[in-house]
Amino acid sequence: MKVVVRAKGSQVRWDEFTEKGSRSIITDFAANEQYVLIEFLGALCAIETPKEQCAITSEEITEGKKHGKMMGQKCLSSSIDNHQIVWIPGISLKHSFLPNVNGIPVEFWHKTAEGHVLYRAISVFYEKQSDAFFTVPEGYTKVKATELSSLFNLTSQ
Predict the structure, then answer these.
(1) pLDDT tens, position by position, 51-72
(2) The model's pTM
(3) Going edge to edge, which strands form the sheet with 2-8?
């Protein structure tokens, strides 16, 4: 899987690409809003995340131990909430399921029921993004996860 994460202020866009398709998660932490953008049965859907799930739950990490270098930059590392994280000190990146660090995460792993999940950055670069990039695009229908069934006339038989 390839993941591209972009941040601007309190807004984060997390794009995932796999062999089976892609999805985007756009979050505005100041507004406590999050949408998962997918194509579902041929329609473009923006599935609203319940507000309690999009809040930051991890404590902020401001210090860490020296970790060495990744991508030519000095990194720090720490453990929090059963997660391990390595980051480049600097601009903060926040996400509801990524520990809140004072820097840019370049490696993150944790245990799941299926094993370990590892995210590793292969590049870090800085670019300007418009505010519109972090909003639900035109053509998407906003729905709550519980409304998907009725939207597509899905019933359990």
Answers:
(1) 777 666 556 666 777 888 887 8
(2) 0.72
(3) 2-8, 11-18, 21-28, 33-40, 43-48, 141-144
